[in-house]
Amino acid sequence: MKKKSKYNIAVVGAKGAVGHEMIRILEERNFPVAEFHPFGSSRTKNQPVRFQGKDYPNRELKFESGVFDGIDIVLSSPGASVSKKFVPYAIESDAIVIDNTSAFRMHPKVPLVIPEVNPQDIRKHAGIIANPNCSAIIMLMAIAPLHRKNPIKRVLCATYQAVSGAGATGMIELYKQSEEFVERVQNNPDYSKDLLSAIRNEIEQVQSDKKPLAKQVFPHQIAFNLFSHNSDIEESGYNGEELKMIAESRKILHDDKIRIATTCIRVPILRAHSEVLYLEFEKRMSPEKAADILKKSPGIEIVDFAEKNYFPMPIKASGSDNVLVGRIREDLSLRNGLALFVAGDQLRKGAALNAVQIAEALIS
Questions:
Q1: What is the distance, to the nearest Å, from the Cα of residue 205 to the centroid of all Cα atoms in its chain?
Q2: Which of 195, 173, 174 is nearest to 184 (CA)?
Q3: What integer pLDDT is reported at residue 168 of this predicted model?
Q4: What phi-psi label fits residue 261: left (phi over 0), alpha (psi between -120 and 50 degrees) or beta?
Q5: How far apart, in whole angstroms, are the C-alpha atoms of residue 155 and residue 24?
Q6: What is the largest distance, in Å, between two alpha-carbon atoms of the chain?
Q7: 180 vs 221: CA distance, rounded Å
Q8: C-alpha–C-alpha distance, residues 163 and 69, integer Å
Q9: Strand (E) or helix (H) holding 10
Q10: Phi, psi values for residue 302, rounded to 5°
């Protein structure tokens, strides 16, 4: 990329949850923007998008030549099918696309990048750089520094993924279902004299499907519930989210031999994903050594206060650029094993922040 003092930036999917965060982070980090161009669907055409104190009309994304003429960098998060359609036109106009969708992640000629883990891969781009899956980013931020010091042979991961991973509509659905359930309890005849009885009664109602809570985004009730991640189950028995984590992690680490098994769960948390990690190393690594490595690793914050039973929590990770790591302890079932608990904001480091960091690396 030609060195400039400022760059023309486009954000595709500017009205979405990730697009909104991309714009906020461009402002927060004082990215050198000359011209700002927001894009979205026909539904959001001309809606105002605020950047640096000024409102810009959201432009309808067209799949044709010339749309991205003059644009230096495109930050993209519109959905995989849309990315596949517009990206060739952006590259035709010599723009570099940093794409947050799954459209190009596993393409052999497209680098898949976490700047703290594999920044060298950015140089291999041919117009597209892919942003990894949010759960993979959060996991790899914690394990890649350890893997560099002592190769990891096996990873077992269980995720607890916030509803904002499904976008703003997921957050709204959790709020509305919670509100509906509370209103039902308050309207129950037992509410004033026996609150617990009223709660139990309404649980039975939704449990029996006699009076289900309204849902549109998720296949199951999310309020006061959790379920296997709402991506399709493949022939292997793993769902799409789990398989993404496995394949993308191997590509980013440049290690096809590392064994990874995942279970991804959707939980009634508004924002920030959490993960349980069990790691098997080639050689023994003490919890103290692991903590020391991670303390020195960029983008990591150690939250490990056993005496207070205080460890990473999604409510503390929300809005943070760092991935929180704690509960660093030996895996008592394995000679060379460690266990960790991590939490990270999947809209920031898991998506928007990572994309902006790639853009910063590009221009530097």
A1: 34
A2: 195
A3: 85
A4: beta
A5: 34
A6: 72
A7: 12
A8: 36
A9: strand 7-12
A10: -80, 125
The confidence score (pLDDT) of residue 1 equals 75
CA 61, 63, 65, 70 torsion: positive or negative? positive
Closest CA to 225 of 215, 240, 239: 215
Give residue for tokens 């990690």.
Answer: 277
Q: Could you tell me which CATH number the domain at 7-132+351-363 has?
A: 3.40.50.720
Q: Kindly name the residue from 134, 157, 229, 264 that is annotated as catalytic.
A: 134
Say how many C-beta atoms besides its own lie within 10 A of residue 17's C-beta. 22
Q: Give pLDDT, residue 229.
A: 95
Which residue out of 20, 125, 229, 273 is catalytically annotated?
A: 273
Domain edges within the chain:
7-132+351-363, 136-162+227-346, 168-207
Cα distance between residue 183 and residue 185, in whole Å: 5
- Residue 229 annotated among the catalytic residues of the structure: no
**What does pLDDT average to over the chain?**
96
The tokens for 273 are 């994903």
The model scores a pTM over 0.85: yes
Fold match, 7-132+351-363 / 136-162+227-346: no
DSSP 305: B
According to CATH, the topology of domain 136-162+227-346 is Dihydrodipicolinate Reductase; domain 2 (3.30.360)
What's the pLDDT score for residue 167? 85
3-state secondary structure 87-132: HHHHHHCCCEEEECCCCCCCCCCCCECCCCCCHHHHHHCCCEEECC
Query: Catalytic site residue 134?
Result: yes
Ranges of residues in the chain whose predicted pLDDT is under 50 = none
Which segments of 19-78 are extended strands (E)?
Answer: 33-40, 48-51, 54-57, 59-60, 73-76
- Tell me, what's the pLDDT at 260? 98
Angle of helix 353-363 relative to helix 17-28, nearest 10 degrees? 50
